[in-house]
Amino acid sequence: MKRSWEISKYAVAMCIATIFFVACKGRAxxxxxxxxxxxxxIERFDQALPAYAEMTDTAEMGLFREKYDPFFxxxxxxxxxxxxxxxxxxxxxxxxxxEAISQLYADTEHAFANDSAWxxxxxxxxxxxxxxxxxxxxxxxxxxISGLNQSIITIDSLISISLDCYLGKDYPLYEQRYYSxxxxxxxxxxxxxxxxxxxxxxxxxxQSERNALLDRMVYEGKILYGLTTIFPQSNEFELLGYSDVQxxxxxxxxxxxxxxxxxxxxxxxxxxxxxxxxxxxxxxxxALHREAPGRLGRWIGLQIVKAYLLQKKKSAAELFEATDNxxxxxxxxxxNG
Length: 337
Known about the structure:
Layout: E1 42-43, H1 45-53, H2 58-67, H3 71-79, H4 89-97, H5 99-112, H6 117-132, E2 140-144, E3 152-155, E4 158-162, H7 174-177, H8 180-183, H9 191-203, H10 213-230, H11 236-240, H12 244-263, H13 272-279, H14 296-312, H15 316-321, H16 326-333
Parallel strand pairs: 1-2, 2-4
Antiparallel strand pairs: 3-4
Helix pairs in contact: 1-4, 6-9, 9-10, 10-13, 10-14, 10-16, 14-16
């Protein structure tokens, strides 16, 4: 039996992973006055799982699996790496009895026992999302413990959040699992933005035949723009998880960074390794400058998108639904750093 839940400092960190993308239909209740009424359902699957491990009635076990289908088999197979389908009960017992997992469960339960701020943030975010994208669906939300595996996954119309990935940057086990520049992305305040980012990527997946750096930058700029409209109280730097120093560098060096991007002929480069240097989390963009913060390509992509919207006067929904390619968006934006 594979034991993928074992925590190793040599494991490759994955902040957000998506499994399947299939939209759903329907909408829940809206806000009432100043009270945040539940617009999406949030269920604590992590709290329900230990009871399943102790069940002896096969009918009861079947009802549990049916309730959490299709998440349950995906969770057992691809997150925990279990192979005792269809019940997975023995594997789950081993998972829950693992010393590191027991500690994660206890620490997660303690951290989230009296904290409703993250659920309020999610409800507000989806209320705002419903206003901006009135014709788009809503997900059902679960929570799980992954053993510091994927932070957030989507399956069909469902999103599940690995709460053990949001115990704060100073949580001791994170030093073994995440690079120092990633640890700040695992604060509880990141849950709502991360969920919304995954959901936007689910509804509006990246599509590019050319797959050049510019294509990714503009797509990431769209996603980041969507987040800035859903979270108007947070600026773009906060959503990226940038420090004050990194934010200042972007503001002061935007023009020079753009000139370097163009002069190095990186914009239309299709090499995956180069693209990742600009887009993925990293201590700095090694292809550009040692002080350029990781994911700078996302931030510059946002500046292109904002300039484009200023020219075209489009809404967030129109931006995401448009089929304009990245080259057209850049040209029509008149962006020049």
